[in-house]
């Protein structure tokens, strides 16, 4: 994976993540955000947006 600094933002002296973690793979594995879903590139887990 390339630039990990793009996945975090600093707010009020705290670091927050922009993307969600995969519930199957655990913390450290981010899910990609698409127009209609979130998808894990590691295990293929998908969460559909409503």
Summary keywords:
two-stranded antiparallel sheet, mainly beta, four-stranded antiparallel beta sheet, 50% strand, single chain, globular, 50 residues
Model description:
- The protein is an all-beta fold and 50 residues long.
- It is 0% helix and 50% strand.
- It contains no helices and six strands.
- The chain has strands at residues 8-11, 14-17, 21-22, 26-33, 37-40, 46-48.
- The strands form two sheets. The protein has a four-stranded antiparallel beta sheet with strand order 3-4-5-6, with no helix packed on it. Strands 1-2 form a two-stranded antiparallel ribbon.
The assigned structural class equals: mainly beta
Helix count, per DSSP?
0
Radius of gyration: 12 Å
Q: Return the average pLDDT rounded to an integer.
A: 90
Helix content: under 10%
Query: What form results from the Cα inertia axes?
Result: globular
How would a textbook summarize the main sheet? Answer: 4 strands, antiparallel
What is this entry, summarized?
The protein is mainly beta and 50 residues long.
Strand-helix topology:
Elements: E1 8-11, E2 14-17, E3 21-22, E4 26-33, E5 37-40, E6 46-48
Antiparallel strand pairs: 1-2, 3-4, 4-5, 5-6
């Amino acid at each position: 994976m390339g630039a990990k600094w793009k996945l975090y933002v600093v707010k009020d002296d705290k670091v927050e993540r922009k993307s969600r973690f995969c519930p199957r793979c655990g913390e450290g594995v981010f899910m990609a955000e698409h127009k209609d879903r979130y998808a894990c590139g590691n295990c293929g887990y998908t969460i559909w947006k409503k």
